[in-house]
Amino acid sequence: MNNNLQMVYTYHNETKHSQQRYAKSLGYMDWATQPDPYRTYSNTTKTKLPLSFDNKTLEYSQIFTQVNDKKENKLSAPLCLESISQFFQFSLGLAAIKEYGDQSWALRCNASSGNLQPSEAYIISNEIQGIEDGLHHYSPKEHELELLSSTEENLNLKEDSFLLCLSSIVWREAWKYGERSWRYTQLDCGHALKALEISALILGWKIEVLNTKDSELENLIGFNQSSRYVPEERELADMLILVSKNNTSTSNDVNISSIREKLQTEYKGKANQLSLDWHKWDILEKIEDATLSDELEIKKYSNDKYEINPYRQPSLLAKDIVLSRRSAQVMDKDDCTISKKEFETILGSVKCNTSTINLVLFVHSVEELESGLYILIRNKEHKNKLQALLKDEFLWEEVDTNAGELYKLEVGDFKFLAKAISCNQDIASHGAFTLGMLAEFTNQLEQYGSSKYKHLYWDCGAIGQQLYLEATTLKLSATGIGCFLDNILHDTIGLKSNQFQTLYHFTIGRGLVDERLSTKKPYSNSRRD
Fold this sequence. Notes:
Number of strands: 19
Distance between the termini: 57 Å
Largest sheet: 7 strands, antiparallel
Radius of gyration: 22 Å
Structural class: alpha+beta
Number of helices: 15
Shape: globular
Helix content: 25-40%
């Protein structure tokens, strides 16, 4: 076993929560070092993006049916300043401002652990009307682009396409969550990725995560220009995404080395300092280094093929769904029952037959379903493996549904256990159902290498973002749960090896609204349009 893979196993085991101990963290909130949730670059040219609140969009369910439309002339937005603005606003932009007394904070379209927002985005534009060619940073606070490197040469991107890089600053999560924060940072990257994918669908575009070397990507975005960054606030490139309106665009059309040569040698702008001081967690830098890769044969992320969901009904406009997505803080335990159709609609939104991630469900209160333990198989090859690994006494009784391969394992009231697994949080027992995302683990790592570890979290985060949106369409509430006792879930299902591991938990029900908080439209104090 190589050192990087050993580091992955070490990190994963050491950052598991258990009944005996939680993963190491500071243990209190050091408000004096709270990071700024916004990255900005000084001395850069800013391009103000027009707000898109009044733009017309398809109804939410229609964005999935159009992706299966085989017509050559499908409706899609042109690449211009206005469409790029909408793309960012309805994915990584501010969704609302919450206020309580003299305090206020922003919520974004992409979900984030503790609303700490470690993800950043950079766009490489070429022949987009209204946007200068070159490398820009997207600043969600002001909804603007910051020009880091211009170019007078054509970047030779495929017509009607642009590149986008997602990056992460783990310090934003480490400030609160300590050593487990790397996990949450990767989940947030997955949430951001799915948010971008949905926003692209609204415009009739598609995204493709390119197969890149991490060192090549770091050089392209300029993170290796260390004088421009605070070393304690390390920012790493996660993935490069090709966004296009032409379905024939492929990764073969992108030459990263050529693009880098046409940008400036030294980029403009110095990154702002996010905190006054820092707490160092050695294991975080070790796991970051261990999961970097310069191998090209690994596929970082596979977009799920959207199947027609027979349960999905007309709802709000797509833009209203993404803007109204929220993380519930409290579920209504007295009104937690949902219909079987609602349950199937939610599961059907993440239906898949080739995923690395399966879902273990604690069903509490769903009409026409017995309360109990269930499993949704999202990879046909995993069923036999899991039947051999899990408890012998499980029923494996198939549930009649078009939402995927759903099996009842055990009947019973699992509310207390679901709460216990979720760090004793009531929200896990007061909803309609709770789930754990069970990833194929050892085989994936040994086949693809240590960098696959973070890709598994991206897959889980993307599933979570989709579940959030689907719950929102049904006027239900959802919450991602990063705090859970890993091995208690494994013990519950009888899993005794690392062949599968739970990486993310989720709960869905009816959230209670905190009437003490007021909600304002974002950007209302800043401008313009």
